[in-house]
Amino acid sequence: MRALTLIEARVLATLMEKARTVPDSYPLSLNALLLGCNQKTSRDPVMDLSEPQAQAALETLKAQSLVFEAASSRVPRFEHNFQRGFGVNEPQAVLLGLLMLRGPQTPGELRTSSERWYKFADIASVEDTLAELKARGEDSGATMVLQLPRAAGMREQRWAHTLCGETLQPAQRSSGDGAMDMDPETEPISLGQAERLQQRIAALESQVLQLQGQLAALHKELGLSQA
């Protein structure tokens, strides 16, 4: 199965979320799906999809049998087929759905985020499920999750899904309403590269602060103005 686009992942994960959190409203109409995709909370990145974008994603997902149009409804409604499509069980599907919706997270964050989706007994259960997904990818050559290098100041390592490929999405810029727009001319960078860049930036910021302190002390010692 080919890698998902960012929009396809958002549409698919939103259907997965609503099936578990608001079952009385599921399957979703296109309007309800669009509202879920564009939520400003519990989404990383925040998006501002248009109806044609969501409809196009639904069509490609339907072609891969990852989404079906519900029968016996005057208004078209859509439901996901994620677990059968990817051959995963419920706990595995929950973690992948959360990673698609909310970005990289630690096992502790995933357990908290999953409360309305699925009840993991403890953090160890989350870690075991992530390990299963990782081992399964190593055996089949179809990676689904990736453990990221530990970020500076964090005790736990974060995990990310790789259903959109093993790279971060292209660099994003903020639009006027705070949503994130994709820059098609920007080359994607790997997750490892992003982590190293963040660590490098933190180190440089620390060095700048040290230099500023040394410069202030030197000005004071020489009786010079810092203007």
From TrEMBL:
Q: Which UniProt keywords apply?
A: Coiled coil
Q: Does the record carry Coiled coil as a key word? A: yes
- Superkingdom of the source species: Bacteria
List, alphabetically, the SUPFAM superfamilies matched. Winged helix' DNA-binding domain (SSF46785)
**InterPro entries listed in its UniProt record:** DUF480, WH-like_DNA-bd_sf, WH_DNA-bd_sf
A Pfam match is DUF480
Coiled-coil positions are 194-221
Q: Which HAMAP family match?
A: UPF0502 (MF_01584)
By sequence similarity, the record places it as follows: Belongs to the UPF0502 family.
Q: What is this protein called?
A: YceH family protein
What organism does the record attribute this protein to? Polaromonas jejuensis
Lineage of the organism = Bacteria, Pseudomonadati, Pseudomonadota, Betaproteobacteria, Burkholderiales
